[in-house]
Amino acid sequence: MSTLVTVDFEPLGRRIQVPAGSDLLSAAQKAGVELLAACGGMGICGQCRVRLVQGRLSPLTADEEALFTPAERSAGLRLACQALAHSDVLLEVPPESLLSQARLQTEGHDPRTDFDPAVHAVDLSLPLPSQQDLRDDLRRAAEALAVPLHANLPALNALSRALRAHGGQVRLALRDEGEFTRLLSASAPETPPLGLAVDMGSTKLAAFLIHLESGAVLGQAAAMNPQISYGEDVISRIAYANKAPENRAVLQTRLVESLNQLAQSLCAQAGAAVEQIVEGVLVGNTAIHHFLCGLPVEPLGTAPYIAAVSQPLDLPAEALGLHLAPGAMLHLPALIAGYVGADHTAALLASDFDAPSAVQVLVDIGTNTEISLSAGGQILTCSTASGPAFEGAHIHDGMRAAPGAVERVRWADGRAQVFTVGGKAPVGLCGTGILQAVAELYGAGILDQRGVFQRLPDGSRPSQLVLVPSTETGHGRDIVVTRKDVNEIQLAKGAIRAGIEILLAEAGLRAEDVQRWVIAGAFGAYLDLPSAVRLGMFPAVPLERFFQVGNAAGVGARQMLLSRTRRQQAAALPQRVRYIELTAYADFTRRFVQSMYFGSI
């Protein structure tokens, strides 16, 4: 029997017993302490920092030796994914290491929604059973509605209870299934049916509570995707899921738990019961979709990246572990390709790509950035591995958009003027901050087109620049921009620009031919467009052609919740898409290398 040691996470007050020799990241996950771990525990991103207060850990690894300064090592800083507990330990968890600190953008521009939900409510006044009327409860309701009525066991239970609790006066939430009508809930008269729309991103979950009789948004909420503790990108999570059979169940359970918490929180804010949520529309990339459904993800990890299923799914909420109305149903829209999921289908819908119109490009920026070009009735789509740099990962002083994160930078008179989230003292750089910092340094001639720092008067070439000196930061350390940080931005922006150029080439178009550039996603909502154009992430076209629409995937999910027509249009969208796999594209490497340079391409 292995010896157990206690790991105490302060100031969170979380404590867990684990076998001696366990790594601290695994201990944190078991204790419910959600540490950032962009690289999936590979010791690369440096986000899962903790400080040893008491106890004995394994010696510093080579990765930790390279990451931490002598002062940080002396202070007891460790990477949770690398340090092993050899005794009872007391740890201090810095706020910047936690998932819960980040600002999460949920809203998006909703140009139109046709109101025609799949669910409708009917008030019935049914006679109670008697010796002269021995019909069962389901038949009694079906005959009053004059439709074939189907119900699962929880919905039947709710119907029987509601009929007797309210003297035969009941409100039924019903869903038309074509050949029959499905009973979703039975409740007191005038109880409004509610819907839940969720954009399940790799980083965040954005949820919306919708009144299904008026279409009103009753509330919105966001949370970090808890799977991020097992890897920031879906490749890391797929690798984790493939390590052991139970790991896939862990990823599913963590996601479902968070969805249930969001539903409960939204209903509490709206003064409603979670049992009023009778339908949900959930969108996400292909991997998140498969994790939610408990489907195998091994084929998504190797070429040709085939999904288990791509067509729309309509599933009972109870089958996935969501605690909503007794007979609640979930609609999962169609996927497009192995790395292009229903979230992009929803974003295309919200951006009106379902109707042939002007030549337009949609760039939905995330850890994986999906790009689509609509021209001549066809949609060309690709997915680029832009990486987590835009989330502040792999950046020396990177962090999420939490209070104190530098989000805006202006370079003037030989120094940086910075603006932070919440107006707090700066403690790091979020994605928009590092991108704008690099753009300002390039514009000032401090960085050249290759992303290299210019030589100093003494002939030396610096490897970093102090953006905010330690005397002005919230933690007493310099905030710097390193050559590696610049390279991370080059990789991210180069991947996006290469994808854009390939789609334009495939369509036989120039950037000037595109009349509408739609920039979606949380990062895209806060992105400084002039900076992105200056660096060459987007072509140098008039800025008035760009439209920053925020969470387009969330908007598309809401539209599908409120409109059967929009749901049908979304189902047809993937049939118009020609997906281009960039890893197999002959010209990709050349275009990617070219796109890494700053300025006009």
From TrEMBL:
Q: Which domain of life is it from?
A: Bacteria
Q: Which InterPro entries match?
A: 2Fe-2S_ferredoxin-like_sf (IPR036010), 2Fe-2S_ferredoxin-type (IPR001041), ATPase_NBD (IPR043129), Beta-grasp_dom_sf (IPR012675), Corrinoid_activation_enz (IPR052911), Raco-like_middle (IPR041414), Raco-like_middle_sf (IPR042259), RACo_C (IPR027980)
Q: Which CDD domains match?
A: fer2 (cd00207)
Can you tell me where the transmembrane regions are? none
Domain spans labelled 2Fe-2S ferredoxin-type? 3-97
Output this protein's name.
Uncharacterized metal-binding protein
Any one Gene Ontology MF annotation carried by this entry is:
iron-sulfur cluster binding
- Native species of this protein? Levilinea saccharolytica
